[in-house]
Amino acid sequence: MRIVLLGPPGAGKGTQAVMLAAANKIPHISTGEMLRQAVQEGSALGKQVKAVLDRGDLVSDEVMIALLRERMSKQDCAPGFLLDGFPRTLPQAQALDRMLKELSKELTHVIEIAVPERVLIDRIKSRGASGSGRSDDTEEVASKRLKVFWELTAPVIAYYREAKRLIEVDGLGTIEEVASRIHAVLS
After folding, report:
1. Which of 48, 67, 145, 177 has a CB 3.0–4.6 Å from the CB of 9, allowing a cystine?
2. What are phi and psi of 35, to 5 degrees?
3. CA distance 1 to 15
4. Which of the 8 DSSP states describes residue 9?
5. Bond preceding residue 91 cis, omega within 30 of 0
6. Burial 13-38 (b: 16+ CB within 10 A, else e)
7. Which top CATH class is 2-186?
8. What confidence tens digit (pLDDT) does each residue in 87-137 have?
9. What are phi and psi of 162, to 5 degrees?
10. What's the pLDDT tens digit per position in 137-159?
């Protein structure tokens, strides 16, 4: 399985991705986690990334595509993978299609977790209040991240929808209810 999990910040992508990847025995590739790890390590790239994330902006397509290309070349991705946080822009989606074509592979599922915006902001604020340790879990940054998502990632959703590869899943309800909906579309 080669799965892309899409959805706005706070939709529950990370939570669902961990469970879904484990259930399907494929690596969970979270570009957000990869970037946060770079920040935590304090490298030069990490410092650049921290400034971008703290503003609620997206890291450049070039950096993200290179990061993903390197990760997908690892042996554990041969049987499949689950992408969480990539692609976030139309050029990233097109680059992913090209990378997979070079490998004579294609995505098996593109799933969007759909959640209303007010619920998203409440979830992000709650995550920040519970001590997530993420510098981007404030209402101000969350609002900006959502604005950036709708401007840059909505075209990705449209791209996959037009290609008839997008499956929308209702992201409201318990973690288990959403997981059940995702498993149903994969069956």
Report:
1. 145
2. -70, -45
3. 18
4. T
5. no
6. bbebbebbbeebebbbbbbbebbbeb
7. alpha beta
8. 989 999 999 999 999 888 999 999 999 999 889 888 877 876 776 555 555
9. -65, -30
10. 567 777 888 888 889 888 999 99
